[in-house]
Amino acid sequence: MALLHESGVKTLDQWYSDFVETDWRYVQHYYQHGVIPDWNDCRARECAIIEPMSIPPITLRQVAVRFAF
After folding, report:
1. What is the structure's pLDDT at 60?
2. Whole-angstrom distance, CA of residue 30 vs CA of residue 32
3. I need a labelling partner for 27 at 20 to 30 A (CA). Which of 13, 18, 21, 44 fits?
4. pLDDT of amino acid 69
5. Are 44 and 21 in contact (CB under 8 A)?
6. Nearest to residue 48, comparing CAs of 8, 9, 6, 1?
7. Residue 30's closest CA among 22, 15, 16, 44?
8. Domain boundaries, the chain
9. Residue 34 has what pLDDT?
């Protein structure tokens, strides 16, 4: 949510909150029951708005590069 707001997008808060809740219900059902649920059974509407969290700074560091071939 913070990234959307920092990018100037401030009109999709409800859509994003509903999307996150829908996604959570979908994944939760799959892991609890072992079957892929119908998307419409998981669809959430008018969820509580997610509060934006601050985005932590990125710290660059060297990594060893390995190839898989």
Report:
1. 95
2. 6
3. 13
4. 66
5. yes
6. 1
7. 22
8. 2-42
9. 95
Closest CA to 43 of 26, 61, 66: 26
Instruction: Measure the N-to-C terminal CA separation of the chain; round to a whole number of Å.
Output: 39
Q: How many CA atoms lie within 13 A of 47 on its CB side?
A: 21
Running DSSP on this structure, what letter comes out for residue 8? T
- In whole angstroms, give the CA distance from residue 1 to residue 47: 14
The amino acid at residue 43 is R
pLDDT at 65: 86
CA distances, 30 to each of 8, 48, 56 (Å)? 34, 23, 31
pLDDT in tens, 5-63: 999 999 999 999 999 999 999 999 999 999 999 989 999 999 999 999 999 999 999 98
